[in-house]
Design a protein that fits this description.
This protein has 837 residues and is α+β, with helices and mostly antiparallel strands. The chain has 20 helices and 39 strands. The strands form 10 sheets. Strands 26, 29, 30, 31, 32, 33, 34 and 35 form an 8-stranded mixed β-sheet that branches. It has a 5-stranded antiparallel β-sheet with strand order 5-4-3-6-9, with no helix packed on it. Strands 11-14-17-18-19 form a 5-stranded mixed β-sheet, with no helix packed on it. A hairpin with an 8-residue loop joins strand 37 and strand 38. Helix 5 crosses helix 6 (259-271), helix 6 runs antiparallel to helix 9 and helix 13 (511-525) packs across helix 18 (727-733). The longest helix is centred in the middle third of the chain and has 17 residues, at 380-396.
């Protein structure tokens, strides 16, 4: 929202410069995003001139040599100015910039010769002063304009027109629709600085109450239109607005159109309440009906587009059909035209959520909708009507007819809240005297009276009974809201730094929080970079991951109000954002990527589950289930190229598995992998990650494998490996405390064996069988070599195993280990294994 400072100072003018005003407003919650300068720079050299003579230029058909009285000058005489405007003539009072003046675009005016004729300045057009939209040839003629002062030659132009101003660009939060008008911001500035506040601009209303015979309004959906007011104006003359009005609108970011439309925009900017002007003669039957639209009903709006509505939207129609979309934009059929002489001025209150939904669904956002969706109050209707009535008389020569159509409830009861002095001190940490509280709240238009005790000698007597003004009824509903108002105006920067009451709370992390942090630290320690992806995803992600229609990851959570179609679902897996980050880096000459992400994934509630990465215990809320996952992705080389050691290893299944092992072993989790097919993983290089909780219950943590070549190609990647696990399940599998076990003082006995087995037997089953057969005497077992070839036979392979045996109380001998070795060989025999050698 743009607020011209000269306009703001008309209602509250503290003795502060623009930077100080920006600071005070921002510190009290009305944030100033930027300060712009609109119009000329400084105003020096811009004066009123009187055209004394106009002669043709001797060497240019389109130029004229003008003699202009600019008051007292150094040379004592009038100025000679060469002008190309077609409408310049003798006797006009015009706007002139003299040599030395600086134009809005920064150009400094100098004396010059145009086709051999000296020119001592410029006669200006509206657009050159930025007080009009431009587009029309011709200079600005001041004669007959409604100005606030005399304009003798030489009078500074800034005394007559707002030709320069600083403009505050404000960020108005959705809970403060009362600040969507210049006067609302002035009230905030009044409270923040103590400067005087001018009377409300709607305090004097030229209009009147009572029925209006020349028009009729019917509201069929009062739940969506709490109040609808209208006034009728006759003898309206459509013409350009006076320069001061154009200048105000231009500085505020509005394009002037004609005097009637400009009046509606001016009244909206001043009061915060949108208005709409109908040509009453083009309203069929002189009757407007407010109703819900029908599904598929169409309306042509002022921007020339035809919009298709549904039954949850509201429209305004006359006897011939729809004329406008309520709260969004008027219709082309009843808009004000150059021949308009009668105007029906509509000011209504609309249901904010309904307007917001219609605006989003139709892709139609206007100044009106951005205000209505924040929740305007019915009282504001007559505020805007009063301002518009004044301006219609002043700027359009209109005559308001007697009466005001007023359909609906003009107001709801005002709420009275108790503000206790002790409670203010308890919340803020410092005492604020009741007199100061009342001063602040009255400056913000609250009504304050000394509190009336509910009982004799009651503690709540030390306080105020505060009546909330109508424009704040949605924002201020509790005592703590009043305390916030007191704090922000009295100075949040002055509050002491204190700690909240602990109430026995302990500052320790939960087991799940510790696991999450340690898991992230483990990834960083292994050299991976953390990425943070969007929780939102595009529906096309499901197809790019090759997910079949029946897959559980297709059961996504869809957003009712997405920012765009590309962010319309909640992500069902971390793999999508990891692939996006990898593609971004690879496309920017970073082919070697090692990244991880720790974040939440989502799925729509359903009792069925495929046992994947995001299954099991979940947080459930509003039809969705979610859990915190950790995912990692590797592509390219695993280490930098070096002169020593040859080419570095590339990312593959075993690189990802080694990374996963480093993570899970850190938490002393008993885990394994099981071959399992995943749609987005390579058919022969994918697995499920399994674990057991301390009670021995099986858990499926997630997936591990190489990304399917077609999926990797869709992201522009080569061979890529990844895994993702549920950190909630990892926390369930990880022991909360570890018992220390001292290293044994006796040496370990190591024996190596080689066994041939069918290739179909996974190494996991081999290690599980020998550990079970060996018992506690087996200190360790690992596979250090794999051989396939003619020596072991077709369909078989040889695994070389390093076995470590140890007892706590004595040194083991070969005779001690021999029975254990025999049990191991027997157990492997049950898997089809034979001892080699």
């Amino acid at each position: 929202m743009r607020v011209p400072l000269t306009w703001l100072r008309e209602y509250c003018d503290p003795a502060l410069d623009v930077q100080q005003i920006e600071q005070r407003l921002t510190l009290t919650g009305t944030k100033v995003e930027a300060i712009h300068h609109h119009g000329v720079c400084g105003g020096e050299g811009f004066v009123v001139g009187h055209v004394l003579d106009v002669q043709p230029h001797p060497d240019a058909d389109r130029l004229r040599v003008c003699t202009v009285d600019i008051g007292e000058t150094e040379n004592g005489g009038p100025a000679q100015i060469v002008c190309g405007a077609p409408n310049v003539s003798v006797g006009q009072t015009v706007a002139v910039v003299l040599p030395g003046g600086v134009m809005p675009d920064g150009t400094k005016i100098k004396g010059a010769k145009l086709r051999g004729v000296a020119s001592e300045g410029m006669i200006l057009a509206e657009s050159e002063l930025e007080i009009g939209p431009g587009g029309e040839e011709g200079i600005l003629v001041l004669d007959g304009l409604q100005l606030d002062a005399e304009f003798a030659p030489g009078t500074p132009l800034a005394d007559l027109l707002p030709i320069e101003t600083d403009v505050l660009e404000l960020e108005i939060t959705p809970n403060r629709p009362d600040c969507l008008g210049v006067y609302g911001v002035a009230r905030e500035l009044h409270a923040a600085t103590g400067a005087a506040l001018a009377p409300e601009p709607w305090g004097e209303d030229p209009g009147s109450d009572g029925p209006v015979e020349s028009a009729e309004i019917v509201v069929e959906c009062p739940d969506l239109c709490p109040r609808f007011t209208a006034r009728v104006f006759e003898n309206v003359t459509i013409a350009p607005s006076p320069p001061w009005l154009k200048a105000r609108l231009m500085a505020a970011g509005q394009r002037p159109i004609n005097n009637v439309v400009d009046v509606t925009n001016y009244a909206m900017l001043l009061s915060g309440q949108p208005l709409h002007a109908f040509d009453l003669d083009r309203v069929a039957g002189a009757k407007l009906t407010v109703r819900r639209a029908h599904d598929g009903e169409q309306v042509q709006t002022l921007d020339g587009q035809t919009r298709t509505l549904d039954a949850r939207m509201v429209l305004i129609e006359d006897a011939e059909g729809p004329t406008s979309i309520a709260g969004l934009m008027g219709g082309a059929r009843s808009e004000v035209a150059p021949e308009t002489t009668r105007v029906l001025m509509e000011v209504a209150t609309w249901d904010g959520p309904s307007i917001h939904r219609a605006s989003w669904q139709l892709g139609l956002r206007s100044e009106a909708s951005s205000r209505f969706e924040k929740g305007l109050q019915p009282e504001q209707c007559l505020h805007a009507q009063a301002i518009a009535t004044q301006l219609m008389v002043e700027c359009c020569g209109a005559r308001p007819l007697t009466g005001t159509i007023d359909v609906g409830e003009p107001s709801a009861p005002l709420q009275v809240l108790r503000l206790r002095e002790a409670r203010v001190q308890a919340i803020l940490g410092v005492p604020v005297p009741a007199e100061r509280q009342a001063e602040i709240l009255r400056a913000l238009d609250f009504d304050c009276k000394p509190a009336q005790a509910s009982e004799p000698d009651a503690a709540d007597a030390a306080g105020l009974d505060v009546t909330v003004p109508a424009l704040r009824r949605q924002d201020v509903t509790r005592e703590v809201d009043l305390i916030e108002e007191v704090a922000r105006i009295d100075g949040l920067e002055g509050l002491p730094a204190t700690l909240p009451a602990r109430r026995g709370a302990a500052g320790a992390l939960t087991h799940a929080q510790r696991v999450r942090r340690e898991a992230e630290d483990a990834m960083v320690g292994r050299g991976l970079s953390e990425v943070v992806g969007w929780s939102f995803a595009e529906p096309a992600l499901l197809d790019r991951l090759q997910l079949p229609a029946e897959h559980a990851m297709r059961r996504v959570v869809r957003l009712e109000n997405p920012l765009s179609d590309a962010q319309s679902i909640m992500r069902p897996t971390l793999l999508g954002s990891l692939l996006d980050a990898a593609r971004y880096n690879v496309a920017r000459n970073g082919p070697d990527v090692a990244i991880f992400e720790s974040g939440t994934v989502y799925r729509a509630l359903d009792p069925a589950s495929d046992g994947g990465e995001d299954t099991g215990p979940r947080i459930k809320r509003r039809g969705a289930e979610e859990h915190h996952a950790l995912g990692a992705l590797l592509t390219g080389a695993l280490a930098p190229r070096s002169w020593h050691g040859g080419a570095p290893a590339r990312a593959d299944f075993f690189a990802a598995k080694g990374l996963l092992a480093a993570l899970l072993d850190r938490f002393h989790v008993h885990w394994s992998v099981r071959e399992e097919q995943w749609p987005f993983l390579h058919p022969g290089r994918s697995a499920a990650v399994l674990a057991r909780d301390p009670a021995g219950q099986p858990l499926q943590l997630g997936f591990l494998g190489e990304v399917h070549p077609l999926v990797a190609e869709a992201w522009g990647l080569e061979r890529t490996a990844a895994f993702a696990i549920d950190l909630g399940k990892l926390a369930a599998a990880a022991p909360e405390a570890l018992a220390f076990r001292a290293f044994g003082s006796v040496p370990t006995l190591r024996q190596d064996i080689a066994v041939t087995l069918p290739e179909r037997v996974p190494a996991r089953d081999v290690l599980h069988a020998l550990r079970k057969a060996a018992g506690e005497i087996l200190a360790g077992a690992e596979i250090f070599d794999v051989y396939t070839g003619s020596q072991v036979g077709e369909g078989r392979r040889s695994l070389a195993l390093a076995l470590s045996f140890r007892a706590d109380e004595r040194t083991l001998t070969d005779e001690d280990v021999a029975p254990v070795r025999e049990r191991i060989v027997a157990a492997l025999g049950e898997l089809g294994g034979e001892l080699r050698g």
